[in-house]
Amino acid sequence: MLEDVVDQVIQFRDERDWKQFHNPKDLAISISLEAAELLENFQWTGSETDAPEKKISIVEELADVLIYSIMMADALQVDVNEIIKEKLKRNGEKYQVEKAYGSKKKYTELSK
Amino acid sequence: MLEDVVDQVIQFRDERDWKQFHNPKDLAISISLEAAELLENFQWTGSETDAPEKKISIVEELADVLIYSIMMADALQVDVNEIIKEKLKRNGEKYQVEKAYGSKKKYTELSK
Amino acid sequence: MLEDVVDQVIQFRDERDWKQFHNPKDLAISISLEAAELLENFQWTGSETDAPEKKISIVEELADVLIYSIMMADALQVDVNEIIKEKLKRNGEKYQVEKAYGSKKKYTELSK
Amino acid sequence: MLEDVVDQVIQFRDERDWKQFHNPKDLAISISLEAAELLENFQWTGSETDAPEKKISIVEELADVLIYSIMMADALQVDVNEIIKEKLKRNGEKYQVEKAYGSKKKYTELSK
Q1: C-alpha to C-alpha distance for C78 and D111, rounded to whole angstroms
Q2: pLDDT above 70: percentage of residues in chain A
Q3: Where exactly are the transmembrane stretches of this chain (chains A, B, C, D) (predicted)?
Q4: Quick check: D19 and C101 in contact, CB under 8 A?
Q5: What does the alpha-carbon distance between residue D29 and residue D19 come to, in Å, rounded to a whole number?
Q6: A5, A39, D41, D42: which could form a disulfide with B28 (CB 3.0–4.6 Å)?
């Protein structure tokens, strides 16, 4: 995440004095709720996102997931960019290219 | 998101030829599933995140939410930093500082 | 729900002295987590449920959603059969047959 | 579930000709979305459910989870009462009374 974007999210929170509510459990709930609002756009539909109104709604809910995720990283005092890079390393061990290439299997099902 | 972090996420996907699976509907499902794995860390517990093992698990699941969100932004051909900045503007209209200050009410419940 | 099935669920809980953990917030989280495990069976796939292993997993996760829902109804001291009948009435007002017939629109989008 | 309640749910669906939309994947998504609406009642709050308005909202969302779960069982052609009884047996093996008594540990963490 660009530093100024992270700063804008934190500023948005602090201008409203919301940090007091941002305990990790309720932030995890909030990320889950925003993810559901994102998913709601695909209930009873296929994957198409061309309808302008639908595209806008999807992008906005995706942004809310990201915003709450940045707020949670701040609450946990971790850096979003660092934890993504770290997790990509871990995922790379679980999903080694030669085994995972072109496969949608879960790592637990990939041939050992 | 830092450009090189976004690039690393996309590279991780492309090295495994996974783009073929990344339709928006299944990506929305995936974000929702990762959000649930994040939330699972708080099932039957309070909000404390001090236990080292728990902290690691929380940070890793949060990273997975962010990674899938970056992949979805790419599938939608939008820029994560841009959509966050745009949404903060929209949220700022829904949650005006003077009304939302220190309040956890939903914007629909904030005094008009 | 058949009375003896509800009784079996409550007995299962009480034999393990789990009622002490069953506050409504954590039960709501648990229902959400079981719903995600159910949904995980459809990640990266279509809707087919014919593969025996997949069918078993789907049915088991659906059962867990139902079991936690029964436990939550008990924690709220409401009767599952009653609240379903009540909600069907409410939904019937929101989705009147003549407007909702053959439509997957949300009630908020149904022609007034 | 009482037979007549299950019948009322199916009748509600069929009166609106909705079975055509009820593929298992979208039903799993719907259960997940209703579970999120249930959980939303506890965002930024404790577990109290005494406020009449909140209690009504919680009960209604719980009912929606149950209604969609009944519809999914019908789509899978399984009996809700049977699958609950079956799953309680399986859970009883995973959570044996002597090991699980008074413990909120996941079965994977229970002393072997």
Answers
A1: 35
A2: 99
A3: none
A4: no
A5: 15
A6: A39
Cα–Cα distance between D65 and C39 in angstroms, integer? 14
Mutate to test the interface with D, among B27, B29, B39 (most CBs of D within 10 A): B29
CB contact under 8 A, C26 and B32: no
The ipTM of this complex is 0.96
Question: Which of the residues B32, B80, B89 would you substitute to probe the A interface, choosing the one with the greatest number of A C-beta atoms within 10 Å?
Answer: B32
Distances (CA, A) of C31 to A48, A98, B81, C72, D38: 29, 37, 33, 9, 9
Residues 13-32 of B with CB under 8 A from A: 15-18, 20-21, 23-26, 28-29, 31-32
CA of C12, closest CA in chain A: separation in Å? 27
Residue contact A84–B20, C-beta within 8 A: no
Mean pLDDT across the stretch C7-29? 97
d(CA B112, CA B94): 10
Helix axes C80-94, D52-75, angle to 10 degrees: 90
Q: How far A112 CA lies from chain B's nearest CA (Å)?
A: 17
pLDDT digits (tens, 9 = 90+) for B10-46: 999 999 999 999 999 999 999 999 999 999 999 999 8
D70-98 per-position pLDDT tens digit: 999 999 999 999 999 999 999 999 999 99
Does C104 contact A44 at a Cβ distance shorter than 8 Å?
Answer: yes
> Torsions phi, psi of A110, nearest 5?
-70, 135
Give which of D54, D74, D56, D62 is closest to D11, Cα–Cα.
D74
Spatial separation of the C-alpha atoms in residues D29 and C90, rounded to whole Å: 22
**CB-CB neighbors (< 8 A) of D104 in chain B:** 44
Q: Which of D5, D19, D81 is nearest to C84 (CA)?
A: D5
Sign of CA dihedral A96, A106, B10, C44: positive
pLDDT digit string, tens, across residues C27-85: 999 999 999 999 999 999 988 888 999 999 999 999 999 999 999 999 999 999 999 99
**For the whole model, what pTM was predicted?**
0.96
What chain D holds in terms of domains, given with CATH numbers, is 2-78 (1.10.287.1080), 79-112 (no CATH)
Amino acid sitting at position B17: D
- pLDDT, mean of residues B1-7: 89
